[in-house]
Amino acid sequence: MTWSIYLSGEIHTDWREQIAAGARAAGLEVSFAAPVTHHEASDDVGVAILGQEPNKFWHDHKGAQINAIRTRTMIENADIVVVRFGEKYKQWNAAFDAGYAAALGKPIIVMHQAEHAHALKEVDAAALAVVQTPEQVVSILAYVIEGKLAGYTDRAQAAE
Amino acid sequence: MTWSIYLSGEIHTDWREQIAAGARAAGLEVSFAAPVTHHEASDDVGVAILGQEPNKFWHDHKGAQINAIRTRTMIENADIVVVRFGEKYKQWNAAFDAGYAAALGKPIIVMHQAEHAHALKEVDAAALAVVQTPEQVVSILAYVIEGKLAGYTDRAQAAE
Amino acid sequence: MTWSIYLSGEIHTDWREQIAAGARAAGLEVSFAAPVTHHEASDDVGVAILGQEPNKFWHDHKGAQINAIRTRTMIENADIVVVRFGEKYKQWNAAFDAGYAAALGKPIIVMHQAEHAHALKEVDAAALAVVQTPEQVVSILAYVIEGKLAGYTDRAQAAE
Amino acid sequence: MTWSIYLSGEIHTDWREQIAAGARAAGLEVSFAAPVTHHEASDDVGVAILGQEPNKFWHDHKGAQINAIRTRTMIENADIVVVRFGEKYKQWNAAFDAGYAAALGKPIIVMHQAEHAHALKEVDAAALAVVQTPEQVVSILAYVIEGKLAGYTDRAQAAE
Amino acid sequence: MTWSIYLSGEIHTDWREQIAAGARAAGLEVSFAAPVTHHEASDDVGVAILGQEPNKFWHDHKGAQINAIRTRTMIENADIVVVRFGEKYKQWNAAFDAGYAAALGKPIIVMHQAEHAHALKEVDAAALAVVQTPEQVVSILAYVIEGKLAGYTDRAQAAE
Amino acid sequence: MTWSIYLSGEIHTDWREQIAAGARAAGLEVSFAAPVTHHEASDDVGVAILGQEPNKFWHDHKGAQINAIRTRTMIENADIVVVRFGEKYKQWNAAFDAGYAAALGKPIIVMHQAEHAHALKEVDAAALAVVQTPEQVVSILAYVIEGKLAGYTDRAQAAE
Amino acid sequence: MTWSIYLSGEIHTDWREQIAAGARAAGLEVSFAAPVTHHEASDDVGVAILGQEPNKFWHDHKGAQINAIRTRTMIENADIVVVRFGEKYKQWNAAFDAGYAAALGKPIIVMHQAEHAHALKEVDAAALAVVQTPEQVVSILAYVIEGKLAGYTDRAQAAE
Amino acid sequence: MTWSIYLSGEIHTDWREQIAAGARAAGLEVSFAAPVTHHEASDDVGVAILGQEPNKFWHDHKGAQINAIRTRTMIENADIVVVRFGEKYKQWNAAFDAGYAAALGKPIIVMHQAEHAHALKEVDAAALAVVQTPEQVVSILAYVIEGKLAGYTDRAQAAE
Asked: Which of D89, D120, D121, D130 to substitute to test the interface with C, most C CBs within 10 Å?
């Protein structure tokens, strides 16, 4: 079984690449999916393909709906959904994705810094793990998928 | 049929009371549900009932999970979910509720001021109506539930 | 048990009233639901409540989405969905409702004149009855709900 | 992940071939499915296999039900459903498919000319994109599946 | 809570009336539903309402589909489905109902004489109780709904 | 897409082999599944593996439940369910499978001789095709899966 | 809305009565459901109604399946499931109910003494609250249903 | 079709290896999944990855939730769930898994010694087979997947 992991949320740092690199290094059988992380493309896709809109609301609406084709499909296909909240911005789409995944019964891992913990308490309450770093996500994946946990290798080896 | 309306989100203004008053004035057959809007009670409910926690994370966690018993049940029982984003705060729980409702296929009405439109575009894209005022919510409910629209009354009356 | 019947489709004749009158005369325990049948209100509800749109597409979009709050909720709550195709117009919303109801597994009764039978064959193929008149709908409801069929009354009475 | 795209609706022009060719040219990992587009075969399949019917209604019924085995299975297996309304005919089956897909929560792309916009407003309201040309469908697929949008290539390349 | 019990199957003896009388005598909070038990009405309902058919197959088809509106709705609304197989006839509709109820996860009680046990083993294997008499059904309902079991009354009384 | 076809019902003739041979000859991309057709093994599997039972009822029960592991899983995984009723026996398990498949929304093809039509009318009413021969099943599969219909080849070829 | 609470698990102390009394004292709009708590009746119900079994396994099996009619129906109808683990016995049925409720997405409250915490960690991990006393359950219900929390009454009163 | 088998429960004997070896010897097309069976790793995974907790309850909670990512995903992906109860310990997680699998409609095989039969009667009542040895599980898999039953080979061979 190849596990499908959807990486939702913040798009301005390379946390997705770090997780992917870590998973590769650990030899995990995973495939990653993500929203389109090109910010301008994501904002403009609606009008670029479907035609310009004088009203910014509809400009955004057309783009957000096309993005939804991608994101909702990927969340529904995911075995695990990781949602990262960054330092800045409202990031309501990340919280929306978490709620969407929660209602579908997907296991959720939330990643954020400690200062956001209170504001994110409802999101965290729906998660099966709350982490701060990509390394922790990789460690969880290694454990969940391969049963490997650093420092606990003896019997795991014996069991194979 | 009595329609169940869940009013999610911002808890510092009286928008819920305005909607309820408007619905009452319009004679609509609706019942409203909402999260616990007493901010301190909502924050402390976990430790107040289940015992103190030295670590703020678990303090929040216990409270958020008890609140989830109420909010998820009410969202699942709702015919329509209204989500209001206020002027301040992160309000990630509101966006989470919107995502949760969307995945359940609930009709969603989002209420927010124009300046949040871009940041909320993914949430709005999942809504069947985006409004700015409680009056608009009442007007939508009157139309959806009773088929009444101000200024279009002639034939509607005849149809009854 | 009160049966909920959703009456979808054509809005320019009084077929809904005929069915309701027939059901009343037969003493059936039913409640009827329907889309808003005031044509202008239905077309304009979006802009009337949410604000004018210079582009007719968005004018229609806003209205159709508010109508969807009503129609999808009512179809999901219905025990039986009746869909009538009239003599005129495209009536794609009626066919859309039929498809929506079919995917939800709702029993469907389709009503249309013989000349539309070939064009409606896919819709009819998803129905449990295809009729031409409101009287036939009432007869089906009387049979389905009360077990009554004109001319077959002896044993039915005995069974009560 | 190979995306499954169901192409519903009008069968008298080569729009399906245009989309397939465009997707091939773009190197997209997609598979396409469609109803049987041989009009006479589609009309006659029921009686050809199951035996003649003197009554045209049952002739149509048997054929439409066999076609339903194909179309409903393919819609249920699709990641995205594209529904095209052509210039002519009632095309109620296309609207039926759109309703069916909507109730299943499938992302829907509707394709039609501007003059049908008002009559199709309920169908469009259930779509995540409304387009006029096969090229637009291909552009959406390229964006949704590969994250590619013409003119926004720099960062997308860097992200790979 | 009023429990809904669907009584499927054999229609030539008064087992339904016996169960209803027993439940009434026991003061159980139940409502019973059943297919139309007037054999001729059930056979002819399709052509009586929708028009005659020269071909017996379509005569039966139209009737069976109208009956399905009633039976499927009632099975879906039932808390418990009781299926009785009589001494005679093929009774494939009873087995069909049992399979239908099983796939919906409904608790099933099957009633039949011992000589049919081998032929009904797949149906019995999907049941939570296999009985021979209406009295046994009433006893099960009294236990399941009220917690009452003849001869075990002391503590049950004390617990109230 | 490889279509999964479950072949339920009668186990004393070679109709499954005929369908499989026909599908192979037609080059269809299908896989077939079936209950265990070794009659004695099917009857005895429970006690053979789990231990003897003096009471025939439990002998049957243990066997029927192990068979259910196979049959329910295969029906749930099937794209199409074919149910054949033979000349003899009660065959309640076939009707049970049909009801099970119907409640899951699976497309159903029923195969039986004309003399059983009236007794099977409820089962037939839930089917999308009613046939008499394995050849007809193969023809339906060829049409549904490949879009091929004997005698209607011209345009179908052109479309490829 | 009347909330339905299912009280699963230990049957040898009066914790259910304590919760019911507390809820009554608090004026909560709730209804409680529970398994049959008469131990002998629960053990013997199968053979008492369906006939004696020489083999204890089938004695238990028949009883457990009849009890399942009650318990599964009540869990599926519940808004909240409370599961209590007592001091003694294996109580595997309590853990089974918790798993059953968890898969259905029901909010779960687990009640047990501290010494069982480690052995129950998987069950607790699926709960939204872990408590030790009936009073805590009542407090949670009062908060979840009425929004009332002892010591936080000022604003809650004002909000009404 | 490769069947997915989830092996839940007791982790101190080599029953999983015995089943896997038996299945390999029988040439069955199966894949096995299991919880992490390294006891210490399973207990400590939460704090090892997410950070130490002074309170044992949260130590356990974090670990149990990470394990739940693995176990719930694997149960949901399984075609068959085998649950083994060993001689010792509370094993509430095994019963929880059984309840979880039951609510999802998964076929369940329970393995335990005779002395636990009464205490496990509710779990057994939800199973399609109750066994004592790994060999019996392999025999069931061989029958369910390949239709092979020792001693009944003649006709099965002929059927291939």
From this structure: D121
Helix (H, G, I), strand (E, B) or coil at H3: strand
Cβ contacts (< 8 Å) between D98 and chain C: which residues? Answer: 96, 99
Eight-state DSSP code of residue H116:
G
- The alpha carbon of residue D120 and the mean position of all alpha carbons in its chain are separated, in whole angstroms, by 15
* F49: nearest CA partner in chain H: H136
Query: What own/partner pairs with CB < 8 Å and gap ≥ 24 does B34-37 have?
Result: B34/B6, B34/B7, B34/B8, B34/B74, B35/B8, B35/B11, B35/B67, B35/B70, B35/B71, B35/B74, B35/B93, B36/B67, B36/B70, B36/G143, B36/G147, B36/G149, B36/G156, B37/B11, B37/G147, B37/G155, B37/G159
Contacts of E61 (CB under 8 A, 6+ apart): E46, F121, F124, F125
Ranking A72-81, E44-53, H83-92 by mean pLDDT, the lowest is H83-92
Q: Would you state the torsion angle of the CA atoms of residues C146, C148, C149, C150, taken in this order, to the nearest 10 degrees?
A: -130
Q: Tokens in use for F64?
A: 């029927």
D-G interface (Cβ pairs under 8 Å ≥ 3): no
DSSP 8-state assignment for residue E150 = T
- H85: which chain G residues are within 8 Å (Cβ-Cβ)? 92
Q: What is the dihedral of CA A146, A147, A153, A154, to 10 degrees?
A: -110
Helix axes C92-103, C56-77, angle to 10 degrees: 40
With a cut of 50, say whether residue A160 has pLDDT above it.
Answer: no
Chain G interface includes F58 (CB < 8 A): yes
- Decide if C91 touches D, using CB distance below 8 A: yes
Q: Rounded CA gap, D160 and H84, in Å?
A: 46
- The pLDDT assigned to F54 comes to 97
Chain C residues close to E78, C-beta within 8 Å: none
Q: How far is CA G94 from CA G97, H84, H86, in A?
A: 5, 17, 18
CB contact under 8 A, C37 and B107: no
pLDDT for D87: 87
- End-to-end CA separation in angstroms for chain G: 17
Q: How far, in Å, CA of D141 to CA of D24, rounded?
A: 11
Closest CA to F33 of F81, F92, F1: F81
DSSP F145: I
The answer to whether residue A59 neighbours chain C at the CB level (below 8 Å) is no
Please tell me which chains touch E, using 3 or more CB pairs under 8 Å as the contact test: C, D, F, G
Which among A16, A7, A37, A5 is positioned nearest to A145, based on CA atoms?
A5
Residue E77 at interface with chain C, using a CB cutoff of 8 Å: yes
SS3 at position F108: strand
| Residue A77 binned pLDDT confidence (cut-offs 50, 70, 90) | very high
- CA torsion E32-E35-E40-E45 (nearest 10°) is 120
Would you write out chain F's pLDDT as a tens digit for each of its 160 residues? 899 999 999 999 999 999 999 999 999 999 999 999 999 999 999 999 999 999 999 999 999 999 999 999 999 999 999 999 998 888 999 999 999 999 999 999 999 999 999 999 999 999 999 999 999 999 999 999 999 999 997 654 444 4
- Please name the member of E131, E155, E159 whose beta carbon is closest to the beta carbon of G50: E131
Residue of E nearest to F88 (CA): E90
**Chains adjacent to D (≥3 CB pairs closer than 8 angstroms):** A, C, E, F
Cβ partners under 8 Å of residue A41, min gap 6: A48, D143, D147, D149, D152, D155, D156
Q: Compute how many other C-beta atoms are within 10 angstroms of the C-beta atom of residue C117.
A: 17
From the centroid of its chain, how far is CA F143? 18
User: Does chain H touch chain G (at least 3 C-beta pairs within 8 Å)?
Assistant: yes
Contact call for F128 and D65, based on CB within 8 A: yes
pLDDT of residue G155: 53
In this prediction, the residues of chain H whose per-residue pLDDT falls under 70 are 154-160
